[in-house]
Amino acid sequence: MSLGQNSFGRSGLPRWLIERVWGLEHAFERARASGKAEDDTRLRIFFVLALFSLAFATLSVGAMRAALFSDARGGGALASLGASRADLVDRNGMLLAADLLHYGLYIDPREIWDTAETRKGLLRALPDLEPERLERALRGNRRIFVLGALTPQERNKVHELGLPGVSFEPEQRRVYPLGTSAAHIVGFSDAGGEGISGAEAAFNDDIRSAARAGTPVPLSIDLRVQGALEDELYKAVAEFTPKGAVGLVTDVNTGEILGMASWPAFDPNKPGKAGVYAQTNRAAATVYEMGSTFKAFTVAIGLDAGVATPESTFDARNPYKLGYRTITDYHAARKILTLVEVFQHSSNIGTAKLAEAVGPQRTGAYFKALGLTTPAKVELIESARPLTPKVWNEDAVASTSFGHGINVSPLAVARAMGAILNGGKLIPLTIHKLEPGAKVDGPRVMSERTSLQMLSIMRANVTGGSGKSANIAGLSVGGKTGTGEKYDPAIRGYSHSKQVSSFAAVFPTTGGADTKRYFVLILLDEPHASARSAGYSTGGWVAAPAAGRVIERIAPFLGVHRRADIGQAIPVEQPTAEEMGNGQ
To answer: Which long-range contacts (CB under 8 A, 24 or more apart) does 437-440 make?
Structure first.
């Protein structure tokens, strides 16, 4: 006889258990034979109690295992559904995305008793159920999937109808509780649990690994910052009706993206209902000719290359001829300007003369070092490749010096701006939360002296230049306006009515290179003048005020406190139309 046959009886039960049961039965027989009925009764009660105790112990062990080892949110149903995704949270632990248990609705027409009753009940309980799809299922000859992503409440609603032939199967679904908020940076995943865009795609493998470990994946954004950024950007959109808009907030010392908004937005819970245009992350995937915000790079390059100082002068009294081009100013100052005044007046003439002094080779090398000739270094797969000059010659230098002839993404601008504002190091952007106090390093592209000079010059532009409307008392805001005219193929030239209007801001400008400092960008694509903008749609009118309001709202969240010694260095009244219109 084999070991299995010695250990187990024909019933499959262990032999020792069979022997114990037969022993008890023999005890009952002996009790009856002796005529002691009470002994028989006691033995039977003891036997029943023993069975109940064994069953209770078994159930207790099972319950304990379920409590200790099952998935905290979805239970065994979710665990059996295959690969799951960890929660995405903001830097403060606020929920951005999660896997939740849902159900798929199935119909087997062979088991249905009353087709009309089933049709009526389901359409009443599930308003999103397509009548045509339901009808095909009812007329079929096999069990078929009809509708997915039913919530437990919707499932219960149908279940209570008691319809034969209607059944459910558990399925996990990615849920985005904030809807359109932060949609482009969070992204979304497909029905199979694969990340498609945003952080969901960028950290796809990490999110799966974190799910197995039962830990969330924290992103760099702060929902308080994100909310203020979106609110002010959408207010500007409502007033100036552009075709698209972008808002960014970054930490220039760590490269962390604290807020990212792209308009139009979409709901990642229903991405299929939004077109490609709304799903496009304009901060990462769209490139623009940024206009005069690029003058910040040109001035920084001129200072760092040693061809100019803040006190250097440039003759802007007459149009400037460079090669076959004649360069003019949007609102001509018609005077000799210092470098600071060139920046404040946003003078194309002065900037082009500065770039010519730097020269094509050095300008091209600096643009490359600032990361403006490659996709912005960030985890997002959407990061777009820029359109840059094929050859760095005098014409390319003249155009790029004031933001024409080169198309870059807003993220590329944010990264390059970070380098000229953080002490001169180019660091990657990130949408992943870094540990508090983390030190991020990168190649030095400018001197610390140049960086501190640029902070002072950008502050001067807000206190006495085209960025006046972004000034917030006590917060030492600096910045540069930008209005890039868009190339129009219909006229084979630049359009005076289609513009990309922006404001690139930094705060606080006080302190040393290691001071915690933040960059804010507001961009409107083809804005229209409003009643309050004096007929202008330039950066000084449509973007700078929004940037100032964002800074005022987010400063407390970032630990930047107002200082009484930093006031409105200029009168509080609205800048003149000429000053603001010059906000190129």
So the answer is: 438/254, 440/253, 440/254, 440/255
